[in-house]
Specification:
By secondary structure, this protein is of the alpha/beta class. It has 12 helices and 16 strands.
Amino acid sequence: MPRSNRRKFLATAAVGTMAVGRVAHGASENRTLKMGVIGVGWYGMVDAKAALGAGGVEVVALCDVDSEHLAQSADAIEKLQGKRPKQFKLYQDLLDVPGLDLVVIAAPPHWHALMLIAALKKGLDVYCEKPLAYDVREGRAMAEAVRGSDRIVQIGFQRRQSKSFAKVKELIDSDAVGRIVQVDAQIHYRAGTKDPTPQEPPAVLDWDLWCGPGPKIPYSPQVGHHNWRLEKTSGHGHLVDWGIHNIDAVRMVLGLSTPKQITAAGGLYQYQGKITTPDTLTVHFEFDRCPVVWRHRLWGSHEFAPEVNNGIFFYGEQATIFASDRRYAIIRKGKPPEEFEVPAELGPDHMADFLRAVRSRKQPACAIEEGYRSTATVQLGMIAYETASTVKWDEKAEQIVDNPAAATLLKREYREPYEHPYKT
């Protein structure tokens, strides 16, 4: 058996064996689903509240490495549902809760791979926040584990529920603006920073466990709660953390897979010494259909057109479309823009879609392979930036071609005693 096929076989066989015995939920099942949430400092609680709002769910367990976050979140859930969830520091203990049906993973992305694969082995359905993983090889191991199970997995790309992007896709597919020649995507905002000085972590926070399989870096408020998104060893920067939403939306609208060539340029011009990822970045993604250019700037005073700071321009031969989460505009030569507001509740709708998929056993809006492709795309962008080189991506082989320095960044070695799930 070829090595790559053997690796995939072993990954799928392991998860499939561990999940044997769990009865799949029937489409007509109306019983209350028991949910666990891993990571409740912020977005895990957003997801939990969305699930409770959708109905038919009881949050029975919470997990966090910050005991203060854990207690506060348990208090909030108890007020919402009338029952206090169990509390755990270790996610493995949460996964062992009797009767658990599904789990939300909202820890930082360097933990996602181990948590998701462990949940699959317990026979649980999973809602995993974006980005799917920290490195490309983790993402592939996760996708193979899902493929080898019968579990429903939704990745938290909430823009797949945007009625605005759905309408734009309809317009482009109907050739209303002609062939799309180029796409520009961007999210500019003033980041704001906290104290980057190394210091002792709060007594309520297990910092060693927080760092987990990633490098154990010195704690500071700037790399701790919330702000880890702009830290290289955890969130991996603005493109990977927030820009990934717009890149996923572009892929969805145009039906793109992954780019074949990537170049990037940028740097730290305003926040040097405060963050460890670029505050200014441009990435050129060469897809088969057309180029997609990403730009972000995390500083500046006032904008000339702040209404387009977060959004996507689709440049067609006959017209241009600007789209964001809840609005879009069609710009034609010699005519004023046609603007449309399209309200949507993206987070609640995405969670509701997941819960429907759990009950029906049908695929959700963002299944694992779509989450993998969008995550790999932005990760390749960061690899191009970090190596200051052109990255050529062979999608079929899932390899970077003729660039050994870039290829080494497809997989980050784990800190002992953790073991990376991707085995060659």
